[in-house]
Amino acid sequence: MRRYELMVILDPALEERTVATSLDPFLGVIKSDGGSVEKVDVWGRRRLAYDIQKKSEGIYTVIDLTAEPATVKELDRQLNLNETILRTKVIRPEVH
Amino acid sequence: MAKPPPRKPKKKVCLFCQEKISYVDYKDTALLRKFISDRGKIRARRVTGNCTQHQRDVATAIKNAREMALLPYTSTAR
Question: Are A84 and A12 in contact (CB under 8 A)?
Fold first, then answer.
């Protein structure tokens, strides 16, 4: 098991309050594989430094979790399939 | 012709070694902005005064922040 930090940029058209609940089904993958989600931090709407998919804003979310490498890979794959998610980044803070 | 007096530049000390910060967070844009120029370029080590390892960490953090649109790749501040 490893600790990961996942950052997600969501479509600004979404409602900010519903973001945490809309991410829940994705995080279900982690729980069913024996991992755990420590923290879901919704930063809220933020201006992007440059346009992504013609959008100049995004809703930033940072998720701390512990899971197996393969589980995180699968989570990242599923997130990228969703059209309301502009970008994701998985980082292992300990390595750096 | 007398030679100009030799310059004694003040030796800068790495900010991160001073503050004992071991992990440079890519989410801390306020800190990282100190290490980019107004054009968005990463400042050189001779400008920032960082040590080798921390300059490398800062560069990686800036690049990660750029990927997540927290910092610009370029900015036309001119």
Answer: no
